[in-house]
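User: Design a sequence. Structure:
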C-alpha cells in the first residue's frame, strides 16, 4: 500500500538493491531480514509501474564468483532500469569489522559485464568506488557507468550517513560536490546530461 501511495503521489522511480541473490549468504549476513520478501517487494514495484533500480554488493565474506554471476543474471531477468554495483567496505562498528573488503577491480569488472548484458540501463558510478581509489568514479564511468549521484545533503547531516569508513565528500557542501564531479566528468570528455535521466527505453 505504501508503494502504491507513493506512486499516486507522484513517485516514479524506486531503488532497492537486492545486494546478493545467494539466499544463504543473505540470511547469514542479515538473519532478521527475508530475502524472499525483498524480492517480492521488487516485483511489486515493477508491477506498479515504477522505473526500477536494484543492484548488488561484491566482495562480501563468503561470496563466490558464481554468486556474482547469478546476481548479474538476476538483474537481466528482472529487467531493471538501473543497477548499481558496490564494493563491500567493512564498517568498524559492525560484526564484519574484521572482514576483508571487496576490491575496486572486482567491482569494475562486474559493472563492465553488467553493461554488456544490459546495454541500455542506467549504471551509477558509486561513491564507494571513489572511497577505494581517488579516481574510482572516473574509472567506473570509463568502464560502463553513465550516472553519478552526488551527495546533496546539507551541513552536519552529511556525516551521519556513514555507511562505511572513508566515505568521500562528508565535509563538502552540495555546491562543491556538484562542481567537483562536473569537472571530473568533463575531464574525460563526457557531457553532463540535462534531461530527466530516465532509462533509455523509458525516455
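Assistant: Done.
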Amino acid at each position: 500500500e505504501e508503494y502504491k501511495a507513493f506512486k499516486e503521489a507522484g513517485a516514479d522511480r524506486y531503488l532497492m538493491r537486492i545486494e546478493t541473490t545467494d539466499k544463504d549468504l543473505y540470511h547469514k549476513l542479515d538473519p532478521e531480514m527475508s530475502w524472499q520478501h525483498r524480492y517480492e517487494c521488487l516485483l511489486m514495484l515493477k508491477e506498479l509501474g515504477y522505473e526500477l533500480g536494484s543492484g548488488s554488493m561484491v566482495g562480501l565474506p563468503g561470496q563466490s564468483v558464481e554468486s556474482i554471476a547469478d546476481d548479474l543474471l538476476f538483474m537481466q531477468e528482472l529487467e531493471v532500469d538501473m543497477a548499481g554495483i558496490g564494493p563491500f567496505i567493512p564498517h568498524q562498528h559492525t560484526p564484519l569489522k574484521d572482514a576483508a573488503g571487496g576490491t575496486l577491480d572486482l567491482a569494475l569488472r562486474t559493472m563492465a559485464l553488467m553493461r554488456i548484458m544490459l546495454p541500455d540501463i542506467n549504471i551509477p558510478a558509486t561513491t564507494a568506488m571513489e572511497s577505494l581509489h581517488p579516481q574510482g568514479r572516473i574509472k567506473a564511468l570509463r568502464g560502463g557507468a553513465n550516472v553519478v549521484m552526488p551527495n546533496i545533503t546539507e551541513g552536519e547531516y552529511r556525516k551521519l550517513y556513514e555507511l562505511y569508513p572513508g566515505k568521500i565528500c562528508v565535509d563538502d557542501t552540495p555546491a562543491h560536490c556538484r562542481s567537483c564531479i562536473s569537472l571530473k566528468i568533463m575531464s574525460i570528455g563526457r557531457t553532463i546530461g540535462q534531461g530527466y535521466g530516465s532509462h533509455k527505453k523509458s525516455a
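The chain has one domain: 2-187. The first helix runs from residue 2 to 8.
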